Amino acid sequence: MSDERLLKLGLPKGSLEQATIELFRKAGWKISGGERSYFPAIDDSEIRCALMRPQEMPRYIADGTLDAGVTGRDWIVENGVELEVIADFVYSKVSRRPTRWVLAVPVDSPIRTLEDLAGKRIASEMTNFSRRYFQERGIDVHVEFSWGATEAKAAEGLVDAIVEVTETGATIRAHGLRIVADLLESNPQLVANPAAMRDPWKREKILQIERLVMGAMAAESQVGIKMNVRKQDLENVIALIPSLTAPTVAHLHPTPKLHGQEWLSVESVISEATVRGLVPRLLSAGAVGIVEYPLNKVL
């Protein structure tokens, strides 16, 4: 297949790898073999996947080596490249919320504000962003690259402060550090090379990925629910059911088991968090045969 009908797609290797592969599975693409190869198989002959660190992926998308990819907003900022943002995929290795890059210092440090860092040493993996951040505020600091164990460097006094990523702040606190300021909020994004988006076929393929993955993410917090209801109880049951638009109602085929009564089937999509409180109320209102089922996509 020529490159004209092949989308080169980058997927994040590392902490987001399994969450991303599972999200694509729910969206309709099965990706396999990533644990053994940087080029995993995908059950779509129009896509070629490449697994790479999110830190470097923006460069490969910017220079056209990849057409599109899923990488963090933070690493796009760090690399200073211009990419077309197609969608925000708000998920992480722990939760469905953005991560934060924070400036942290030891608990007993006298540093309370960003200005207190003038002349101080800061360690971070995000060196370009950190330097720009302080330069824009006129604060003279020394930023050095950290190859890992960044929290420990501040805790042991090797540096005065760190710029590090966190979701909950728990790891920061566990190392005896406190957060002075939030510097950048980040989440995975589907981004594309502008030239790829000008190609009609590649653009449509990228937008297909965006629609289906967003549908899979929307489905993660929702479930389908269906039940049977006598006609005289229908309005009381429907009044209890939240839905995207309105519940679907269909007549049951009359059989001797219905004993001449008119029964209806009611189906809806609702928030999973509401089910445990809703089901007892539905039963009390006359619903029977309630079935809850998972969803792959909501579009």
What does this protein look like?
The longest helix has 20 residues, at 200-219. The strands form four sheets. Strands 4-1-5-12-6 form a five-stranded mixed β-sheet. The protein has a five-stranded mixed β-sheet with strand order 9-8-10-7-11. The chain has a four-stranded antiparallel β-sheet with strand order 14-15-13-16. α1 packs across α8. The protein is of the alpha/beta class. The model has no long low-confidence stretch (mean pLDDT 93). The relative contact order is 0.14. It contains ten helices and 16 strands. It has helices at residues 17-27, 57-62, 73-79, 127-136, 150-155, 170-174, 194-198, 200-219, 234-238, 272-285; strands at 7-12, 31-32, 41-42, 47-52, 68-72, 84-88, 99-106, 121-124, 142-145, 161-166, 177-186, 188-192, 222-230, 248-251, 263-271, 288-294.
